[in-house]
Amino acid sequence: MGGVHRTFPLCRWRGRPPASGKASDTGDAAFEASRGTALAQLREIVEGVRSREDRVASLQRIHRARYGEGVEAVPLNELADRWEAMPRRRRPSAQHVRNMRAILERFTRYVQENARRTRSLDQIPARTVLDFLADEERRGLSGRTLNVIRGVLRTALARLAPASPAALCLAEVPGREELTAHRRPWTPAELRRIFGAAEEIDPALYPAIVCAATTALRRGDVCHLTWDAINLEGGFVTVKTTKTRQTVDVPILPPLRPVLEAAAANRSESRYVWPHLAELADTNPGALTWRLERVIAHAGLIDDGGGDQEADSLPILAPAETRERGLAAVDGVEGWNEERRERARVIVTRYLEGEKVGDIAREVGCGLSTITRDIAAVQAAAGVQIVRHRAAGSKVRRSGPTAEGDFGPRARRASLSGWHAFRTTWATIAISCGIPAEIVRAVTGHAQVETVVQHYFRPRPQTLMATITGPMGRALLDEGDDPAGEG
Questions:
Q1: The domain 188-298: what is its CATH number?
Q2: What's the whole-model pTM score?
Q3: What topology is assigned to 76-170 in CATH?
Q4: What is the reported pLDDT for 402?
Q5: Domain segments of the chain as ranges
Q6: Euclidean distance between CA atoms 327 and 372, whole angstroms
Q7: What is the DSSP letter of 480?
Q8: What DSSP string runs through 156-222?
Q9: What's the Cα-to-Cα distance from 303 to each of 64, 136, 373, 381, rounded to whole Å?
Q10: Is the pLDDT of residue 358 over 60?
Q11: Among 265, 355, 391, 400, which residue's CB has the most CB atoms within a 10 Å radius?
Q12: Residue 66, burial from CB neighbour count under 10 angstroms (0-12, 13-18, 19+)
């Protein structure tokens, strides 16, 4: 195939071959039986080669039809650059590009070290890809991070070397299970307390909080809301969401209308409804998170994750002693191999030196959830406070696991009752009020109703009590009409 000749041992021959040594002559019965076995195996190999050639040819045709060009042999060391230059529907953020390039460059180094003869992407052995993914798993990365690594490799190789063994292998590698952290919905009474606290201590953030709670829009879409998306007379907000690119139409609920009218009365030349929030979302989105945390703390609402009080009660030591205790505790964390301990030492050292978690994640090549999980584990082992607090006296933590020992992916307290919790609140209240899940899905912009029901409908006990006990109680006592329509 391709001008390359290979010899394959098919089977061990038996009996006596023909005395002439010619393939056209016949040997004894045992020899002819072994010859038949060998020919059958040869046919399987030939059919397999032809099948793979057909598959490669089909991928080449698909690639040419989709992108208008054939597949070239892309040098291995150009993988990250070629991925970044790939055409996209929308430009990724600079942070996303840095994170994905770090993964691709780490993969490139691994291939160069473990498959030394590989020069181009189409030459990467499938076994090397599987070994790389297994090596990443041994580093103790979360399921979510492993899925991100698999995803960027699959996308890059499917585009740059679609017929390669590595691309074909990645197409069949299943994703890892991720532990879902369900956001905590607020009750209507709690929302009123959050609104009041925002008006009192952070009036600049108040419009975004009201908008997020009444539209189910994500934080970025709220902050980047434009005037052409607002129809005050018609009573709708129409937004093409940044994440899913779905266009959603959301009715303007009563709490939001005065907020939008106030913004309209003070409208500037900017196309954004709240220009200061749009700028903050672009330059320092983390500030939006900790400012919301401060509002929630001022409202007297704290996470009930179970680990706050114990973590807050840990002693606060001088920086040098904290670092010494933390590094010493790394050796005491159970279940870690030496590679993971070494990574944890780097993480703890840089974290205590004041580096941002995102910068540390890019440097060591793992996800944010892995960083926070390792820091929390070391803190628990050291018995001293390592996790930084955003605001003095605040009981709402910006990161860390929800409870001692619960170091699952995405198990961060701030995410459970932060901006995304407003989406969960909107969906939960809407479904509890009898709004069909399909209508809720249309507002939240999800592709499937099951996503809304499984991940966003999280009724609190008091909601279940009020919604179920009244009508169910009357039905069970045979009061009023028969809900089943039978006499």
A1: 1.10.443.10
A2: 0.49
A3: DNA polymerase; domain 1 (1.10.150)
A4: 37
A5: 1-19+27-70, 76-170, 188-298, 308-416, 423-468
A6: 16
A7: S
A8: HHHHH-TTSHHHHHHTTPPPPP----PPPPPPHHHHHHHHHHHHHH-TTTHHHHHHHHHH---HHHH
A9: 53, 33, 18, 23
A10: yes
A11: 400
A12: exposed
